[in-house]
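Recap slide: Radical SAM core domain-containing protein, sequence and predicted structure.
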Amino acid sequence: MNLKNFWHNFLENKINLFILKYLLFLKRLYYQVLSPFKYDIRTIINYYILRRKIKPILQGRKFPEFLTVIPTNICNANCVFCVYRLLDHKKEIMQFETFKKVVDEFIVLGGKHLELSPTLGDVLINKTFFSLVRYAKKKGVYIRMFTNGILLKKNENYKEVVNSGIDDIVISTGDLIPKLEAEILGISQKLASQKIEGLLKLLEYKEKTKSNIKITIAFRAKRSFKDILATIKNSKFKRFLDKRVFKVDYAFRYDNWCGRILKKDLLGVMRLRRRPILRKYPCSSLWNISVLANGDLRLCGCRVKETEHDELVIGNVLTESLSEIINNKLGQKILSDWMVGEIIETCEDCRRYGFPKYFKKFKRN
């Protein structure tokens, strides 16, 4: 490499790093100053616009084009910011036939995007997970998966993630330092080290195969983003970040899992979100329709309080069609009650309220 190319690459990397730092600084500033009030502001501004649109939505005419499917509710971690460690619930794994029925009916409804993301648990614990993925990909569905990444290295799962056709993977990560990763995820340092090795192998394999899979390492750290970035720069991950093999996400505000997670549970820079003052419209998560491992269809795929089999469950795909369930009276009643201030217990103290933004028509049988 001649001197000119050396300086060109050097400056390009420095500029990319500066831009990344600047954008993440703006993001953090936004979350610290404006984010706590953004849903209150949106509710006020959009009230007169949305109030005319909300009626057909509540009548079941519009639903999102994505569906959350939960392959299992079993987890191999006990993250400090998650309610999983506080629950005593029945462990379940979705059967292939259940998944097949859901996907087939989802396609008929015009669905295009599957979120394989357990409310509780880790998808890679389901040993048939990649068979589920391949079936859905044959139907032309876009797939995004969420995982804690602990099992990426085991049985070379990182290769299957790439080879199975998954479009997007988000890996929840406490830190790239094994001791801190273990503390945040509630696992052993040995397991944390294996997880970090699995992350590197996934990035190496993506680069080797020239795959288009999107990889995001979502940091849920006790340290500041500046410290996390410094660790990346001084590790094997730097090369992959410079080449944009993966993206970085960082969070320091967390919801309270319907009142179950307290400030004392969090570590370092972690903070609890405040509850929005205004919640005029039903939370956007109520349109994040999720199918649980046993076939129950639940309006929210984000958070639970005591169990996922609660008052948000409106049917079961093994006894009814997906279309019948999402348009039934029980689901509509939950949404309508919200409009008059009658919010169910699970949602009452939840700080993950999302303002309804996008609604997509589904065909009706």
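The chain has two domains: 3-52, 56-347.
Residues 3-52 form one domain.
(End of recap.)
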